[in-house]
């Protein structure tokens, strides 16, 4: 039984050292309510029973403490701003600024190798290439017509819906 008390004592020292190391490194500790308090009992049998039966970490309390609103001490980093040199429009990402500035300069670096049509964005060139493909990726379930983009298929489907409504009103 004395060995159990010694082990519990050593475990508490290990936890304290780990806690102090984490604090010195800048880590935020778990809320104290997540850990069950150490048990010190005069009755050796009672101490051994508590140590063996109780979990060392209460995950339920961790979840509760994580969902509570608490003030943060962390300083928020200011968002970078990228400003268009032509119209002073603001962007949070440099890529979006670069694409936007191409509207002012009319730069179109992505060319179709089949028809030589140029695009400002690579994804627009990718979508365009479906025009030259023999099989279109989006097909109408009613008339089997193929489309390069989902949005043009949805516009097409609306024409079928209008025609169906027109037939119902005439009948």
Automatic annotation (TrEMBL):
It comes from the Eukaryota. It is found in: Nucleus. The keyword Zinc-finger applies. Pfam families: zf-C2H2 (PF00096). Keywords: Metal-binding, Nucleus, Repeat, Transcription, Transcription regulation, Zinc, Zinc-finger. SUPFAM superfamilies: beta-beta-alpha zinc fingers. The keyword Kinase does not apply. Residues 82-109, 110-137, 138-165 form the C2H2-type domain. Its main location: nucleus. This is Oidioi.mRNA.OKI2018_I69.chr1.g2927.t1.cds. It comes from Oikopleura dioica (Tunicate).
